[in-house]
Design a protein that fits this description.
Elements: E1 14-18, H1 22-31, E2 37-41, H2 47-50, E3 56-58, E4 72-75, H3 80-93, E5 96-99, E6 112-116, E7 119-123, H4 130-143, H5 148-165, H6 168-185, H7 191-200, E8 206-211, H8 222-229, E9 233-236, H9 243-247, E10 253-256, E11 259-260, E12 263-264, H10 268-280, E13 284-289, H11 299-308, E14 313-316, H12 321-328, E15 342-346, H13 360-364, E16 369-373, H14 379-388, E17 396-401, E18 409-414, H15 418-425, E19 432-435
Parallel strand pairs: 1-2, 1-4, 2-3, 4-5, 8-13, 8-14, 9-10, 9-13, 15-16
Antiparallel strand pairs: 6-7, 11-12, 16-19, 17-18, 17-19
Helix pairs in contact: 5-6, 10-11
Length: 445
């Protein structure tokens, strides 16, 4: 059934730690920041315990008389039977007790603790696995900034000001935006930013152009995920793991603007205008893009539009499919002795009569790996043009549809036959096309 996590004010509570070894020391270190008055009883005490200020030290074995006036006890001797006897006495007298490594004798358990100023997180598995509780605690520590205590102090100091200057109907929104801005900028907030939040709230929006990586939700960067967890709106594309959207706050607005070949849901100009509009509402906006925003993701266009509108923005890189999808298939885009460079090229452009990249003759003569994105529908014409431009027909080539595709697969061949092989295999978009010596590598399973 688990344990209910009461949070108790231990300031001034009388407590006893029976034991003077390493386990006792760990319990003492956890308790002291919360202000109890601790007595430590054991024939021998570690030097670290001896030198810890604020403790009452008793250099002898536990005696029942030591329970007088105590509100909680930690039985942490090196004798399990002695710990059990202490626990029995405590339960008989109504004293809270924790007997180390003996859950059945405990009336309370020690959680895995994370403390950041006034924030305390406690994780318990009801004794099933302290290691699992510690694992969850470490994950929480990664998510909560080190300066979170200072942030809480800043928010607490602003509460009277918010109550005085902000109508009750707007306070919840103002506190949420103070938290979001504080997490990004820290405290104290600049006076103009604070005034904008308190008075009109329409001058502090910011847009983050975030790369989601390629495929699984956990390929996003830690920074990108943290931004997603506290955004007010997320504007997202195709080719994203749906689990990423679950990371956004429940109240965050979710706006789909994906574009795929033959199916356009929103023009780029409209997306630009949407980002500006949401930022002007005072929102913290995450523009979530597959791969990297600045690698054929039109992130540069969106950044320029935001800049022109005077909207603060920030770029958060992601893992581009040009590298990740071949890598998943065991094909490094560079490899010593095979390919000393790689070139990422869009195979879908409006700057040429047939939609293929201009100056294919120059590309065909490059050493290294050619990585073509968004080119599956033009694969046959692309391969033919590369050969016509002077590339050897037997040059290795591969087509890879990654894990975010309907049917993930890898097809290998040569420039001469890769289009036919991909067609016979039924490769579906999105797919990455590789041309060059590294395309025939098979590293891993």
């Amino acid at each position: 059934m688990g344990y209910f996590p009461f949070f108790m004010d231990l300031e001034g509570w009388e407590g006893l730690v029976a034991g003077g070894g390493t386990v006792a020391l760990r319990k003492i270190e956890k308790l002291l920041p919360y202000g109890p008055r601790l007595t430590v009883a054991a024939p021998e005490l570690l030097p670290e315990i001896e030198n810890t200020p604020g403790l009452t030290l008793v250099h002898r074995v536990f005696a029942p008389s030591m329970l007088e006036g105590k509100r909680f006890v930690i039985a942490a001797t090196d004798d399990p039977e002695a710990n059990r006897e202490i626990a029995v006495l405590c339960r008989e007298r109504g004293v809270l007790v924790n007997a180390v490594d003996d859950k059945e004798q405990c009336t309370f358990l020690f959680p895995a603790l994370l403390k950041r100023g006034e924030l305390t997180l406690g994780v318990s598995t009801a004794g099933a696995s302290p290691s699992a509780a510690a694992w969850v605690r470490r994950r929480a520590a990664e998510a909560v900034p080190e300066n979170f205590g200072e942030l809480l102090d800043g928010l607490a100091a602003l509460r009277p000001t918010v109550r005085q200057r902000v109508p009750e109907a707007r306070r919840a929104d103002v506190f949420a935006r103070l938290l979001a801005v504080g997490l990004e900028e820290g405290f104290p907030l600049p006076e103009d930013v604070l005034t904008a939040i308190l008075e009109d709230g329409d001058k502090v929006g910011k847009v983050y152009l975030v790369g989601a990586g390629c495929g699984a939700a956990d390929l996003i960067t830690l920074r990108g995920h943290r931004l997603l967890e506290r955004c007010g709106a997320v504007v997202y594309d195709d080719l994203l793991d749906p689990a990423l959207l679950d990371a956004a706050p429940e109240e965050a607005e979710r706006i789909y603007v994906g574009k795929r070949l033959g199916r356009h849901s929103m023009a780029q100009e409209d997306i630009n205008a949407l980002l500006v509009a949401k930022a002007r509402e005072g929102r913290m906006v995450v523009r979530l893009k597959g791969g990297d925003p600045f690698v054929f993701g039109r992130g540069g266009e969106e950044a320029l539009a935001l800049q022109a509108a005077g909207i603060p923005w920030e770029y958060v890189p992601g893992v581009t499919s040009a590298v990740a999808v071949p890598g998943e298939a065991g094909i490094p885009v560079t490899h010593r002795g095979v390919s000393r460079s790689f070139h990422a090229i869009t195979a879908h452009t409006a700057d040429s009569p047939d939609g293929l990249p201009p100056r294919l003759e120059e590309l065909a003569g490059l050493e290294g790996t050619l990585v073509f994105l968004m080119g599956l529908s033009r694969l046959e014409e692309l391969a033919r043009r590369l050969v016509e431009a002077g590339m050897m027909p037997e040059t290795p080539a591969a087509v890879i549809s990654g894990k975010n595709a309907p049917r993930p697969m890898t097809v290998r061949g040569t420039v001469e036959d890769i289009a036919e092989r991909a067609r016979e295999a039924g490769v579906q978009a999105p797919a990455v096309i590789l041309v060059g010596g590294s395309a025939e590598l098979r590293i891993g399973g």
